[in-house]
Request: fold
Amino acid sequence: MNSFEMYVPTRTLFGAGQLNNLHSQPMPGKKAMLVISNGKSTKVNGYLARTEEQLKKAGVEYEVFDKVEANPLKSTVMAGGAFAREKGCDFIVALGGGSCMDAAKAIAIVATNDGDLWDYVQCGTGGRKAITNRPLPIVAITTTAGTGSETDSGGVITNAETYEKTGIVDPQLFPVLAIVDPELMTSVPPKFTAFQGFDALFHSTEGYISNKANLMSDMIAITAIENVARSLAAAVRDGHDTEARTRSAFGNYLSGIQMCVGSCTSEHSLEHAMSAYHQELPHGAGLIMISRAYYEFFIKKGVCPERFVRMARAMGMEDAEKPEDFLTALTKLQEECGVADLKMSDYGITRDEFEKMAKNAVDSMGWLFTCDPVELSVNDCVEIYEKSYR
Reply:
């Protein structure tokens, strides 16, 4: 508890309008691979054009790769690596949400290393090979407040052939530069603002009850919880509320750091198994669906009751006295954000998948289960899915 290791080397420009300062920053190469999603938002909202202009002012050439889907696929990553080599790109600019930044990190690996991405995955069916050649440097420009991927050294990729959604983590994957500009988040629709915000929140609520919690991660996590929980509903109601967007973005940024000095827990593993089988399920939505049953499991086990009380107070329930108050605060926030009644069945999930998903979670991201404050069995996981099902 009193010991920790902290290494977060990413230079970060935080605040409204910071994208305008990209051109004045040292660039890690001469030709960028500009990674964006396969959707329209970065183009329609002008973020791509603004980034291109900044790169031109910096004297950097670029090529646009616009293939990344939500819950990015290994096949897309492999295509991206080939693209980077073919175009002679020597660094990557990831412009978008967590999917773009995660994909960029994986592309950075396969652009400079032989073989398949899954050769370098350290769990499940991964080949567990070391990354021998340094990945391409990454500049991360986040347009969402959800994953904290702009500040950490990992990315989550789905292997559609094996139904595995898992992380690739390596210190070489820390972005060299991050732009966290809340102005780029004003166009995110209310529903996705909520999904992304709860992802950021759970990075830190998980970290706060994790058995890897320490002095530094506690300080970061509780501040992240406070900033996200007290601003998210306002950002959902009014996407142009600059203060709410800034506070949500700050909480998300801190949650990324929390994952570097602390850890998430198996809540993320359980959701990754859900979206591994159901590609269209947004990660944050899946986390919201299982969150109340997940935290209730630990509360009923009598785990770290004072920490649940502290989180409830950080979320705005100043008079919280018992662990169950955290569930009350969590439910209230989900209601205020309009996401309290999400249904697994709306995304095609059926009850007969629960055991399969539980085993997948343990096999694909088992290391997060080792961070749980008490052991979670496969049967416990099934029960959490069952209690969450609608």
Remarks:
- The chain has a mean pLDDT of 97.
